[in-house]
Amino acid sequence: MSDPIPDVPVKPARRSLTSRLSIVWLVPIIALIIAVGLAWQNYNDRGPLIEIVFDDASGVRANETELRYRDVGVGIVESVGFTDDLDQVVVSVRIDKAVAPYVDTGAQFWVVRPEVTTQGVTGLDTVLSGVYLQGLWDRTPGESENRFEGLPSAPLLATGQQGLRVLLRSSDQTLTGNSSIIYKGVEVGRVGPATVAADGQTVQAEAVIFAPHDALVTEATRFWNSSGFSVSLGPTGAALNFGSLATLISGGVTFDTFVSGAPLAQDGTAFDVFGDNSAARSSLFTRQDGQPVNLVAVFEGNVTGLAVGAAVELEGLRVGEVSGINGYFDTDRFGDDNLRLQAVLSIQPSRLGLEGDSSAMETLDYLQQQVREDGLRARLVTGSLLTGGLKVQLLRDADAVAAEIDMNAQPYPEVPATQSQITDAATTVEGTLARVNDLPIEELMQSAIGFLDNASTLVGSAQTQAIPGEVAALLGDVRNLTGAPEVQALPAQLGATMASITGAVEDLRAVMSDLRDADAAGRILEAVDQVQAVVTDVGTGLEGLPELLATVDELAQSWRDLPLEGVVTQAESFLATADSVLGDPRTRQLPADISSALDSLRAVLDEARDGSLIANANSALASASRAADQLATATDGLPALSAQVNALVVQAGGTLSSFDENASLMRDLRLALRQVNSAATAINDLARALERRPNSILFGR
């Protein structure tokens, strides 16, 4: 057998590289290069990736939902995920490189969806295109940021708008979120969503006043609720008041500045929203310096009638108001399951006498001192019997059990409370109705009916019906009387009489002037002083009379021893005469008469000094005349009296010579002096007789 022939290896000839290249391969290579270049350019031109965190991202789709600025797309959503705790949604958005520098820390984002509210319909364009993200930032590049918190709704100020941002708050149902701010019927702002404050007692909402209307808001501006309607009764009838149909349905807030001169409000200023216009105006006269201090008080029992806004009073002065009310249940503290009333008291430090800028701790320290030292307690009292409303009263109870403010209580420090003093309006009304029911209504009705019957009989009688005619006749007689010429002439006669009286008064003033110029009062006083000296001499003479009588008694005793019957007879006659003189009532009355005359003269002088000389001149002269007569009787037997009286008369005559002789006062004075002169003459004759026969007073001859 023959072996098989092996195969001869055949190798193809090697071709050169150039022979293997083909121009066809350039097409994919160029396409690849272009694709890579475009990819690089696209990667290099794309903007940064930012993350926006929302509570709810319904309708947001990756690679579909746009990010818009002024309704122009500036980015696209790349992915939608969750945070690590799955509590929020994280939306990753790739923004354009051109706008990336402006998306800084102040940028805001929210989801635009179709929404139907009482204010209208918004986001209709998203019905066909789907939801989109809206961004808002300023036109100034800032520090870059890659994570943002999304807003639940659109901000109050849209892109490019300017205005004043304020915070509205209310402790009752006077604030409605997402409503309009109206000024004189024009919408000038918006109220954002309303939220409950951290204390759980007040509702607050951010609001904005669009420019240029923001210049209308000052620190003295007052806001009040304009939604709803009110009915008022007045002299013109009933009136139904409401702002507008829109505010009636959706609610709204209006404002006004009642006083001028206050500075303009700044961004972030907080304003209280009042229930109506009258409450807003009243707040202008209520001092509210500084922030109020909140306290809580827990009252026993299920009490009704206390409302938000009720007054908190201290010694009759309003120092705050009730800003919140809720139930309070604490088994561990009270040991029972009873429901109690917890009231939040908003106290103004300035109304307690503290400075307006006092801190809350300073106010609490002051109240703590009042609670510890003076027994300050809170209690409920009746504010209105008609409505049954209550108010909180802070009173000082010196007998209260020691207590203090619980600074650790929640949500605010708790002030101790005491027993409430509430008047039951129902019981009061029942008592009033019972007293009304006990009134003798039937007896009163019978009395009224009888009175009306008697009145009807009286009015219907002929005599009563004749009264108008008689009155008319009487008026006619009066008219005739007043029209008589004699009555018409009375005014002229009265005028003449008044002129005469005026002339007499002028004459009287002239006489008074003459008396004042002539110093009449001084001269009369001088004359009276001399009269008083004469009376003193008379008293001195009378003082020697007892000694004279004693001497006579001794002489009579000595004569008893004489045997002469004639002497005895003369002695007996002398004694009889002396006894008759001494026993004479006129002699006994002599001191009293002299004293009375002096009192009369002093009264005349006092009246003359007081300026009543003209009115009392006649009385003074009469008293002087009587005094002169008494002096003439009293001075019997006194030798020196005549000379003094003569001198007095001469001096008085010289004094009166300076006065007007025709005056009535002068005539009266001259008459009186004549009488005094006559008395002086009698006294002079008596004195001469005594000089001739001194013993005649002893023997009666």
Automatic annotation (TrEMBL):
Oxidoreductase as UniProt keyword: no
Annotated compartments: Cell inner membrane
Mce/MlaD domain boundaries: 47-123
Keyword annotations of the record: Cell inner membrane, Cell membrane, Membrane, Transmembrane, Transmembrane helix
A GO cellular-component term linked to this record: plasma membrane
Chief localisation class: membrane
Name of protein: Paraquat-inducible protein, putative
Residues in the signal sequence: none
Transmembrane segments annotated in the record for this chain: 21-40
Gene that this sequence comes from: pqiB
Coiled-coil intervals, chain numbering: none
Statement: the UniProt record of this protein carries the keyword Transmembrane helix: yes
Domain of life (superkingdom): Bacteria
Species of the source: Ketogulonicigenium vulgare (strain WSH-001)
